[in-house]
Amino acid sequence: MFRKDHFHKGLWSQGGACSFLRHEVDQPPLKIVEGVHECGVCGQFQHVPHLKPGHVLSCARCGETLARRRRTSAIAGPLVFCLSSLALYIVLLVSPLMTLNIFGRENMVSLMSGPVELARQGFGTISILVALASIVMPGVVLVCMALILYGASREVMPMWVRPLLTWYEKLRPWSMIEVYVIGVIVAYTKLVDLALVTLQPGVYLLGGLMVMMAAMDSAFDADMIWKHRSVTKRKGLGLYRAEGRRMPPEKHMLSCHACGLTFVARGPVDNDEDMGDCPRCGQILRRRKRNSFQAALCFLVAAFIFYIPANLLPVMAFIKMGHGHPSTIISGVIQLWEAGLYFLALLVLFASITVPVLKVFLLALMIGCEHRGRASEASLKRLTGLYKVVVFIGRWSMIDVFMISILAAVVRFGFMASVTAELGVVFFAMVVVLTIFAADLYDPRRMWDAAGYNQEVLVPSAQDEGGGVTELQDMEPEKA
């Protein structure tokens, strides 16, 4: 049975015979606040003016980008790049990436070869992870984008667009084509000394797909798509026009984590309180991510535990003419350095050794700051900036996992030469996944809350106590 706390609840909130929507009596009375946006990393609510194409709006407190208007068309721009990416992706699925020739014997590797070979060697979990990140998720996000743009191009945006847009925002980081490209480059540098390596058309298609998807993301403006979607009318939902009026107290306000729509309640809102369903995207409304402190801490501790065997155990074994030895992550970096590939050696060292340690340390620092409950605004600004860095670099540690999948797939010559994955790659992949989850589940706004920010509450005046009404209780009755 689906619980309403599941993220995919929005898929079942479209009305009809199999709807799990709560009745109007379960929906707390809220007012939509026009022209106000909440910063997603520090929690400050700010007035958002009308932005012209090419303009960027940043948070006045922490510098986070609140809104950006692209110069390209909201639909046509990303649609061109999306269709181009889909064409490249389809051809890439059936195109080889490279060919390895050892004394006349050839092996060819494609995008699907790595997961297949890992599964054959008994690493089914890693096989699924590599297949999801390099094959499945890129296709899923491209199809989602095409459907979103098609729905947004219609005069009335269909209801099914809202769960797709919500899913797209969550699944896009798991499409790791750009990380896979670096994995291919590192694998190529390790193979050139072993045998004759010939790059096939798939490598160029892969590079083109990376560029097209990056351009698609740059041209896509999710905020403009959400504004095209009208809200669902319901009892108790009204409108609060903030223009020309004082900003409501921060403790009374909240925003949707999926579409960014801002609301104000008549009373203070607890951080984990369920405030009903968002009338625009259908997701559950809460002031903060639920149990973010506990969830992030659990994933962080698990990642730290797995990090130790990930570095001590070998991640792969290279055998040539019946002789060879297992290789750890750090020994692979040393081999690249000794081969004169200093840039790649530093890149792998940073992505596979430094980044996991950095993520664990910085997230632990943020969790400790929230637990302590004391920090200056300057310290919070620095931690907020570091949180954005942690989120950005989280995926790049997958370089070694992708490289091993490629080497295991192409170097299969039995006694002459072979590469096999080892147990260490399982622990290392778990570290990457767990730290990504920890960063995603953590809510940096709670650091600011714990330090005393975002806690303004409406104080009733003498008139209110004498039977009058407060400004928030007397909000306009206009329908949203």
TrEMBL record:
Keyword annotations from UniProtKB, A to Z: Cell inner membrane, Cell membrane, Membrane, Transmembrane, Transmembrane helix
Cytoplasm in keyword set: no
UniProt superkingdom: Bacteria
Pfam families: PqiA (PF04403)
Membrane spanning stretches: 78-103, 123-150, 171-191, 203-226, 295-319, 339-365, 386-411, 423-442
InterPro entries, A to Z: PqiA-like, PqiA-PqiB_transport
Location (main, coarse): membrane
PANTHER family linked to this entry: INTERMEMBRANE TRANSPORT PROTEIN PQIA, INTERMEMBRANE TRANSPORT PROTEIN PQIB-RELATED
Name the record gives this protein: Paraquat-inducible membrane protein A
